[in-house]
Amino acid sequence: MARTDKQNLGRQGEDDALDHLQRHGLALVARNFLCKGGELDLVMRDGAALVFVEVRRRKSSRFGGAAASITPAKQRRMTLAAQVFLLRYPQPPPCRFDVVAIDAGHITWLKNVLDDGA
């Protein structure tokens, strides 16, 4: 099935975020993890920790920018997906939630943005 322009831009944003995180020493564990009720764009390993990454891309920082577009509902869906993802581990590793915000091509990596953990 052909992708829309919006999907292609989203995929490019994820590619850019993945490249950025890998250049900073993180390793890819999973990409576009889907479960009923939630989704994770990227799951990375940072040392012993798992990092659940939400990638947001906006043409400009007008209207609050990419990071501001993550609503409480989206945060709940991310938490749910992380909980499902962690079921594969007999002993869950330490984990955190990060955001890679891309505003007008500028990447900002925000670490440990959700306080409730998985």
UniProtKB/TrEMBL annotation:
Q: Which Pfam families match?
A: UPF0102
State one molecular function term (GO): endonuclease activity
Quote the InterPro entries the UniProt record gives.
Restrct_endonuc-II-like, tRNA_endonuc-like_dom_sf, UPF0102_YraN-like
Q: Which Gene3D superfamilies match?
A: 3.40.1350.10
Name the keywords, alphabetized: Endonuclease, Hydrolase, Nuclease
Assigned protein family: Belongs to the UPF0102 family.
Designated name of the protein: UPF0102 protein IP91_04456
Q: State the organism of origin.
A: Pseudoduganella lurida
